Amino acid sequence: MTKDKQDRKTKYFKDYLALDNEQLKINAGVGKGVYLEILTRIINQLGIAYSIHKRLLVLRFDLHLNHYTSNNEVISKFLKRTKQWISRNYNIKDIGYAWVREIERAKTQHYHLVLFLDGDKIRYPNKLTKHIKETWSDNGYMPTIKNPYYFIDKHNHKEMRAEAINRISYLAKTRGKRYRDPQTKDYGASRLKTRVINEYKF
């Protein structure tokens, strides 16, 4: 079986996802499922972000908490502050994002996140990464991960988009989800809406 339902979300166990007449490689397989609803929401926001920005920066990072919380207020406040800082420092209005909440071996939750930003205004994300790390430090820590960002433009669109989707599909994995209060969400995403259509739209 490649699909079944859990918490009103669909578990999927293939390493390729057919979406809009396209086969997308994802981080899944036998015994390693993803939730389709989370994955398609993230891909949707990535696609809309690219239709808005001529060059897209996709930034992946993780945030660990030093204490358990029964809700996601801490990540909501963090994202609000971070978006305000990005808007002030880079003059970016359309900020795409997605986050997931997970608990595995630790007693506290951690979050996996991705930002979709204007790659013409943020060429090198070092300053932004440093700000995120400092902003989060009162709540916990931000581990270093390899190859945390991708730039997608008209020259590398097909290849780099595929790499980015495969990487961020990790956020949709079923493992680590569900360990939360019933009223607490295990994921969230921006609500970007397409305004500009270009020839490389998703």
Distance between the termini: 29 Å
> What is the string of SSEs from the N terminus onward?
EEEEEHEHEEHEEHE
Tertiary shape: globular
- Number of beta strands: 11
Description:
With 202 residues, this protein is α+β, with helices and mostly antiparallel strands. It is globular. The chain starts with a strand and ends in a 13-residue tail after the last strand. The protein contains 4 helices and 11 strands. The strands form 3 sheets. Strands 6, 7, 8, 9, 10 and 11 form a 6-stranded antiparallel sheet that branches.
List the helices and strands and how they pair.
Layout (H helix, E strand, L loop, with lengths): L2 E4 L2 E4 L3 E3 L4 E3 L8 E2 H17 L3 E10 L7 H18 L5 E7 L7 E9 L7 H11 L3 E2 L7 E4 L4 H12 L18 E3 L13
Antiparallel strand pairs: 1-2, 2-5, 3-4, 6-8, 6-9, 6-10, 7-8, 7-11
Summarize the structure.
The chain is an alpha+beta fold and 202 residues long. It is built from 4 helices and 11 strands; from the N terminus they run βββββαβαββαββαβ.
Defining traits:
202 residues, alpha+beta, six-stranded antiparallel beta sheet, disordered C terminus
